[in-house]
Amino acid sequence: MKKPFHYCTTDHTILHGTIHSEEGEPLIFLHYMGGNEAIWNGVIPFFIENYRVITINLRGHGYSEDRGKGYDFDTLAEDIALGLDHLGITAAHFVGSSLGAYVATSFAARWPERCLSLVNSEGALQNDTGPGGKFTESKEERMAKLGSRSETTYSSKEAYIQHLKAVWLPWSEVKERTLEGLEVDQREDGRVATKPSHNSSMQLLEHLFNVQLEDWYTNVQCPVLFLPAEVEGDLEGKLTFIKDKLEPILTISKTEVIPGTTHAMMFDHYEEMSHAILSFHKEMTSLSGELKN
């Protein structure tokens, strides 16, 4: 089953999502920056029999509105809380990719009682700045570098899709299915650009640079699974940050590196990713039972 839904945020932005199944504990999937809920199409079949699976398009992504504001993590986390309220969900499991992992972790830090578990794939693994961070440049230098990149536009949505197929190799059935949720920003001159807009993307990246993950994870109470990609770059930096900065402040956590994975592992390694999440949930259920006894 696929049951689309939408809801309104406190700043009157309309967000869209999909309910994929109704049985079991709620499981929320949140996509990466520039993606949409359809990136999870390869993963979802592994969970629909035992979970109430829900995907949400973050603001400015997919069919959700981009109003050019609200791209700080407090607002993004509140967006998710309102989505759960709309669906009558008290607490849920979360799986996030990149930006989605940051949003889910921000949510779990603000409302720890509403997060049953957290799986962070290539996101919320390492600070941008500070000791052990990704970058040595200042915020001003980083934003100037990112802001200097010109925005690419396309003659049509179809032209953008053909571009994706040419550069996003190897193209596959799973990637083809992500096109179900693809939406573009129509310009006055008739050309199209990807979502979110350049301005909204810059807001996201600026807020991301300020994030200090230790502050968030200190408030997280649920089990956390870290899924850093093996071949994405600076794996050792991520593993060191997790080991030195994050594991000591978490009650229960696990780190797993799936061989051959890249940033968007839900495409070329969707089976391995799904099994890692399911195994983690099983381990946490078993551990919870032991603690009760």
UniProtKB/TrEMBL annotation:
Keywords for the protein's UniProt record, in alphabetical order: Hydrolase
Listed SUPFAM superfamilies: alpha/beta-Hydrolases
Source superkingdom: Bacteria
Residue ranges of domain AB hydrolase-1 in the record: 26-129
GO molecular function terms attached to this record: hydrolase activity
GO cellular component, one term: membrane
Pfam families xrefs: Abhydrolase_1
Residues annotated as transmembrane: none
Gene3D superfamilies assigned: alpha/beta hydrolase
Protein name stated in the entry: 2-succinyl-6-hydroxy-2,4-cyclohexadiene-1-carboxylate synthase
